[in-house]
Amino acid sequence: MSRAPRAENARRSWGEDDSATPILHVDMDAFFASVELLEHPELVGRPVIVGGRDGRGVVSAASYEARAYGVTSAMPMNEAQRRCPQAVVLPVRHGVYSAVSRQVMSILGEVTPVLERVSVDEAFLDVSGARRRMGSPTTIGHWIRRQVRERVGVPASVGIASTKFVAKLASAHAKPDGLLLIPAQATQDFLNMLPVGALWGVGEKSAQALARWGINDVRQLAATDVRRLERILGSAAAHHLHDLSHGVDPRPVTPQREEKSVGTESTFFDHLTDREHARRVLLDQAHQCAARLRAGGLRGRVVVLKARGADFVTVTRSRTLGAPTDLARDIFAVVESLFNALPTPGGGFRLLGVRVEGLVRADAGVQLLLDDDPRRGAPERAADAVRERWGNAALAPASLLSRPRASDRPERQAD
């Protein structure tokens, strides 16, 4: 669920010409909550929050009834329950959501092999090669929504545009449970009516900096000379946002054929300057990566730390282990060492991520080191069993169970 601001009047007809709009962005509506409602139909129409219990952790998903009370994804659970005390809180069950996600992605795969899965609940498709067989992009979009609803039972929103960036904006404005086409010739008109916060990379501080110069919407941003934007935001961010304000996004839809890495990253709406908070984020990411490795029967040899500053400069650091691992303790030991050697960028971190590469099958007969104790992974594997039965909120490292400090701000995550 995107927390970026939207324009209510942007959800309207922008025309019917989809001849130059081969990119579809399919985004499931409140996915975790929608899946839970399949098993709990008695909760339909009631506010439902999926996330950590007892005020711990963050909101993973919220039904639209809960959102009406201001509950958003990545919000601390204690804040969500304060805003909507009557909400039904359900634990996160990643295994169930992954199974439903595979069903959805299988339907999308029937349309085209040019499919880029972005996360468990969203994907891009380039339907250029599917037009002769299935019809226009709009026809295909309606088919996808109907098939997902009939065969899986959950709602999906679809955005159709000439680029990935605009297609994603279109799907956000199609929610809930809708389809929005942005014809190529209407791209600039559509963008012009959006607030600057709708653009990728504009957080609260960037929006405030632009507002001080009288730039509040994309129309004003697009009309601003890039050299002035450089003085406001810095060179990298200025060129990035100037391109987006004109609908420029040359990235193709890139299918992932074989999983070559496992990772997760968090983008912060308020840039993160507290290194201890950053360390806790990285520890949580290390545990997420390790759990996914074990669930997939994989181990990894290369650990990668990714960090992006407020100036949009991205730094990656990696280290190769002596032997492949699927344990968070090994992954975080490397991540912590790499992070300690990395200075906090001016303005703080806007993104942190952990990735494990060099994957091998766990049963591939990798020789253990002479001093390696096969029992050392027992605690993490036991924790897997507990979470599988009782949900992800049932067990976590002690350092991650403390309540967020008042200065901590929520982050959004992407697989």
From TrEMBL:
Swiss-Prot/TrEMBL keywords: Cytoplasm, DNA damage, DNA repair, DNA replication, DNA-binding, DNA-directed DNA polymerase, Magnesium, Metal-binding, Mutator protein, Nucleotidyltransferase, Transferase
Enzyme Commission number, as recorded: 2.7.7.7
Compartments (UniProt record): Cytoplasm
Essential cofactor(s): Mg(2+)
Substrates-to-products reaction catalysed: DNA(n) + a 2'-deoxyribonucleoside 5'-triphosphate = DNA(n+1) + diphosphate
Region (Disordered): 244-265
Record's keyword annotation contains Cytoplasm: yes
Cofactor comment text: Binds 2 magnesium ions per subunit.
Binding-site residues for Mg(2+), renumbered to this chain: 27, 121
Residues in UmuC domain copies: 23-203
Stored Gene3D superfamilies: 3.30.70.270, 3.40.1170.60, 5' to 3' exonuclease, C-terminal subdomain, DNA polymerase, Y-family, little finger domain
Enzyme class: transferase
Site (Substrate discrimination): 32
Active site location: 122
Spans traversing the lipid bilayer: none
Entries under PROSITE patterns matching the protein: UMUC
Assembly with partners or alone: Monomer.
Annotated family: Belongs to the DNA polymerase type-Y family.
PANTHER family registered for this protein in UniProt: DNA POLYMERASE KAPPA, DNA REPAIR POLYMERASE UMUC / TRANSFERASE FAMILY MEMBER
Stated role: Poorly processive, error-prone DNA polymerase involved in untargeted mutagenesis. Copies undamaged DNA at stalled replication forks, which arise in vivo from mismatched or misaligned primer ends. These misaligned primers can be extended by PolIV. Exhibits no 3'-5' exonuclease (proofreading) activity. May be involved in translesional synthesis, in conjunction with the beta clamp from PolIII.
Name this protein carries in UniProt: DNA polymerase IV
